[in-house]
Amino acid sequence: MLLIEKSDRVAVLTLNRPDAMNALSRALRAALHDAVVALSNDPEVSVIVLTGAGRAFTAGLDLKELGSDPKGLGAANATGAAENPVLAILECPKPIIGAINGVAITGGFEVALACDVLIASTNARFADTHARVGIMPGWGLSQRLSRLIGPYRAKELSLSGNFLDARTACDWGLVNRVVEPEELMPAALRLAADMATIPPETLCLYKGLIDQGYDLPFGEAMALEHRLSSANNRTVTPEMVEARRAAIQARGRTQ
Question: Is the CATH number of domain 2-196 3.40.800.10?
Answer without folding.
Answer: no
